[in-house]
UniProtKB/TrEMBL annotation, chains A, B:
GO BP field: prolyl-tRNA aminoacylation
Name listed for the protein in its UniProt record: Proline--tRNA ligase
CDD domains: ProRS_anticodon_zinc (cd00862), ProRS_core_arch_euk (cd00778)
Domain Aminoacyl-transfer RNA synthetases class-II family profile: 39-280
The species this protein was found in: Borrelia miyamotoi
Amino acid sequence: MGNFIFSKEEDFSKWYLDIVQKAKLADYGPVKGCMVIMPYGYAIWERIKRILNDNFEKTGHENAYFPLLIPYEFLEKEREHIKGFSPELAVVTTAGGEELSEPLILRPTSETVIWNMYSKWIKSYRDLPVKINQWTNIIRWEKRTRPFLRTTEFLWQEGHTAHETEKEAKEETLFILNLYKRFIEDYLAIPVFCGQKTEMEKFAGAVSTYTLEALMQDKKALQVGTSHYLGLNFAEAFDVKFQNKKGEMDYVFATSWGVSTRLIGALIMVHSDNKGLILPPKIAPIEIIIVPIFKVDNEANKRILEYSTTVFDILKREGFRVEIDKDVKNSPGFRFAAAELKGIPMRIEIGSNDIIMDCVTVARRDKDKNSKYQVSMKELLSKMRCELENMQSELFNRALEFRNLNTKEIIGFKENDYDTFKTYINNHLGFVLSSWCGSEVCEEGIKNDTKATIRCIPEEFQNRSLNNLTCIYCNGVVKYLVLFARSY
Amino acid sequence: MGNFIFSKEEDFSKWYLDIVQKAKLADYGPVKGCMVIMPYGYAIWERIKRILNDNFEKTGHENAYFPLLIPYEFLEKEREHIKGFSPELAVVTTAGGEELSEPLILRPTSETVIWNMYSKWIKSYRDLPVKINQWTNIIRWEKRTRPFLRTTEFLWQEGHTAHETEKEAKEETLFILNLYKRFIEDYLAIPVFCGQKTEMEKFAGAVSTYTLEALMQDKKALQVGTSHYLGLNFAEAFDVKFQNKKGEMDYVFATSWGVSTRLIGALIMVHSDNKGLILPPKIAPIEIIIVPIFKVDNEANKRILEYSTTVFDILKREGFRVEIDKDVKNSPGFRFAAAELKGIPMRIEIGSNDIIMDCVTVARRDKDKNSKYQVSMKELLSKMRCELENMQSELFNRALEFRNLNTKEIIGFKENDYDTFKTYINNHLGFVLSSWCGSEVCEEGIKNDTKATIRCIPEEFQNRSLNNLTCIYCNGVVKYLVLFARSY
């Protein structure tokens, strides 16, 4: 037991699970694949919720709540949707002591129940757009599970919007994609590639799916959010028509989009180290922990605690998320390690010497232990602000550098390029930007050879010329530059 | 269609359902008994959540999330618990395309899954107290449902605490009861009687249940929250022991407590009228709506809208929850009615005459339409503050007066008192304070004769002398003064 954690170089997966449990983010529930989100993990989720929710609200989205239980036949109304989700459904067959005449499924996503309601609510162009979001639990029966990354039950938000025109719905899809990108990069300090999914990888029921893809420290990719343009698929399935300005009846265009508790898994796998979690300050439930260094002398301890409380009050009043560690039983070293395990960005140590000097000693979670230094009380506030800001941007830059270092271009020009591609991806992992003809045969072939899939058709490389390039797999005419990676 | 609603005098139940749907609080989902909480209803729930959550947090409670799915056998571990809940369970028998080897139930409440986790987390007195709360959905298969009051799925918070001593756990039970009372009275403006439930009415698995009981305008009672002292029942069922300060192993004492979306039903049934919802200002998502009175003249309309926007900005900056109704198509009368239907506490009308006078016209939702008056811009802020505060306390006082008027004392002294009791309760409804011997035979007898149950043993009457009183039903020795009522 204790706080010893596996090293990530030795076993990345065990390191991950160790952080989840020992930093008390989550624990295994009694049902396979269902996790318990513990208070510290839930506090991170609450910060994610609050920040995203404020953004949704500011841009005219409203929250609501739709039922967990969905008639099975609803899923069958959209052909691709049922095909994609049927292997993962949990089904209620008995309730109130009786067998149900029609089975009910637990929502694996809510398009069907929501579009069923939209068919009642949307009658005229005056009712549009409808921009509704909900924060809920979701059930998908997964074979292999891992806390936060893939669990039978998870928490998420799902936005479901309805629009008059294709143009407006497509704009909403990309608007949300961009809102997610800004949130994930600015708050979680995780750089992402954005782009469209291929037909094979898109959401079951979407016309097109846009994704955000991040690189973990083990060089595997993680999809951290998606935004779908659903076209008329759900409007047709649920017969949602509105009277347009000319008095004619038209189907309604749709989008849906979501991010989930998986983001907490990404935070762990992008930033953390062998001492535990490292949280970007903007998302940390506690930004600063004050650790009074207690002595054997009770009089001295009283002074130290008083001084620490003064520091706490000053920081609290300025709006910092700060706590005092009042543990008198354990050694300072033990208590430093505990704060490091939880990934608290800044530690303030206060001992007798700091009091004499009218100072505090500060240590940043992402720096090595020799870098701690004294700050005068006069400079306390400005220094804290500055360090937290620096840490936020340095974590992002470090992750970006790692991502870029592990994003390799291997683009098809000649016959033997595919060998280079295969060898590289099998030995180095990471993202590989490559050239693809658009055929599913090639996509499948590469997946079989390398276990890598097309993560997305990344926006940021689409203005390049495709002249003289060939599909990395078949040497055929290139349609897109795409990002390959093995992924979670 | 339209906004016409049933009168409550004519049919209270239809009036209630009309307000739910026409004020767009909730709608019926596709599965019987499952409601959709619409954005306006959800906004009320979000205010309830935020205020209660801040209170829980301030008093050292932490949020977490426990799984929806619970092994059936868990419920069987506490004998009374399974007896109480088994008729209401929804059961998942198939998942991921396969029949499950052990059925899983959807949480009807989470004591079992939480105490299963506490058995892993609690080892020593140093781990105590544990004070965890969660905001979740709950499934109970109800035969007769009604939006917000009794639905197959509802949203709630459930607190689950673990303590070293009986004393501490009992104190927590009453502390939360009192926290609920303050919230419900101060924010929802609903007066409540607090007290213990009888053995017959208590929570399945509790040692004792404390309840908050409110009186609706149809003179039926509604239980609006409960707080349970669970003793060692769940600790014993899940073998949750801790090492106490002397080094011995002891069982852990428990409490649980919750309020749900039912509170929204109470808000409707206590305050609202035949024009629609009336919301107490402190809980209203929108406190003030500004209604510009547009004319046919475009130039004038521009000035009116500008002036309205100025008023909006002034109020917004001061932290009021304010909106402008920019509808130019419908008549002022129609727009007033729409704002009234939604129960917005204050309406500010702005027409050309108001601009000339440097005024606005204000109308309070709970006053009759002739009571609207002009307020100079100079007095705008102070007047708004004052009116909102007055409305909050007047709504409470009105509800209290109604409750007191309909709380009758019929206490047993002599043989024929029971006839008086029966006649009264059957004709007048409301609360009846009466004297009871403590026997379930009498409790059942009264229920059969009057459909009234013992809502609680109210705290506020327990210091009265019971000398010379007899049980209203059997004329036996009195044990308690209790409140009877028909209820939802």
